[in-house]
Amino acid sequence: MNMWLSIFALLVFSKIQLHVHGNPQVPCYFIFGDSLVDNGNNNQLQTKAKVNYLPYGVDYPSGPTGRFSNGRTTADFLAEFLGFDHHIPPFTTARGSDILEGVNYASGSAGIRNETGQHLGVHVSLDGQLKNHRATISRIFRILGKNVSTSGYLKRCLYSVGMGSNDYINNYFLTKYSSKRLYSPKNYAKVLIQQYSQQIKRLYSYGARKVVVFGVGIIGCTPNANSLHGKKGSLCVDKMNHAVRRFNTELKSLINQLNADHSDAKFIYINAYRMASMNVSSFGFKVWDVGCCPVGKYGQCDPDQQENICKNRSEYLFWDSFHPTEIVNNILAARAYKAFEKFDTYPTDISHLAKI
Ligand SMILES: *[C@@H]1O[C@H](CO)[C@@H](O)[C@H](O)[C@H]1NC(C)=O
Ligand SMILES: *[C@@H]1O[C@H](CO)[C@@H](O)[C@H](O)[C@H]1NC(C)=O
Ligand SMILES: *[C@@H]1O[C@H](CO)[C@@H](O)[C@H](O)[C@H]1NC(C)=O
Ligand SMILES: *[C@@H]1O[C@H](CO)[C@@H](O)[C@H](O)[C@H]1NC(C)=O
What we know:
Layout: H1 2-19, E1 29-33, H2 74-81, H3 126-144, H4 150-154, E2 158-162, H5 165-172, H6 179-182, H7 185-205, E3 210-214, H8 223-229, H9 238-261, E4 266-270, H10 272-276, H11 326-337, E5 345-346, H12 350-355
GO molecular function: hydrolase activity, acting on ester bonds
Pfam families: Lipase_GDSL (PF00657)
Main location: secreted
């Protein structure tokens, strides 16, 4: 079992060292998503879904930034593997020519559907994130000037999109929302994918040609799911995992369809669900049913209990009641970048996509 860990350690650290001083493999990296990759976009918004306070960021070089983890997110690790010497800045604070290397639009509690997560307050849904991207493109056009082709530039960038978790956690499985009364799990997956398809095509129409789409993880196994819905004798909340598997199956078909319809672009699928179904104890994890930090009402770390967080974060799968620890983000990003098993990515991995 230690062999697995050292293989990952090798994979991860050699990549960081290889590219730290070189040019990035792509000129720019744009990130769309939810709290799994938000790095500060919610900090100034009226919402319960913001975490710019300790103990969040306890293992991040500049402390709490709004990242929903103890340290780096998968987007941060991917930026490192791609050879960027910095993490991609949030849309809310990215200034000047910084945006030429990419922008992070992700917003905690956001979903594919506009109404998702609204009970927590204001956020930027995927539609809003795409609108912000359009504003970024106008700024890039002005910076590059008329002699450089903006579309020629944008098509060389990498784009990652990870949405859908909140459309289940903070919509379908909460009685406050009407989705569950309106749709069976099967039909809900279909309407979500229909809307997601339009959104990804919009991203394509804005010039994206290298697109990474993350599937939804095993949301039925989070400490929050277990305390809210009950495990009923299983290890996880099965109804949540079943619903998400339907979504992921449809999403993989959508990726096939997008590749078939757009021969000048490449779309890939990251099987986050399968990766997270790994035998966690064989990765050295010792705790997977509770998070590392004591949490408050919304499942986020309690700011008044900083001194009571777990000591060894690499033994915990979860940081708070929803979000993985930095080490889990590291493993997911490493496998998305360079597939470790055949099922990790489809039809290819990010290291290959970047080279195209
Ligand atoms: C999303 O919903 C909010 C609140 O209902 C509304 O103000 C906004 O215009 C909607 N956005 C889109 C893109 O539909
Ligand atoms: C843009 O290209 C034109 C034609 O080649 C040239 O005359 C002009 O100086 C260029 N402008 C800039 C800002 O490079
Ligand atoms: C998971 O890994 C642990 C440690 O390597 C091992 O003892 C256990 O049998 C494994 N469980 C399964 C279901 O493979
Ligand atoms: C933390 O936990 C990991 C996994 O069990 C272990 O390999 C490592 O030695 C621990 N580190 C410390 C400082 O205890």
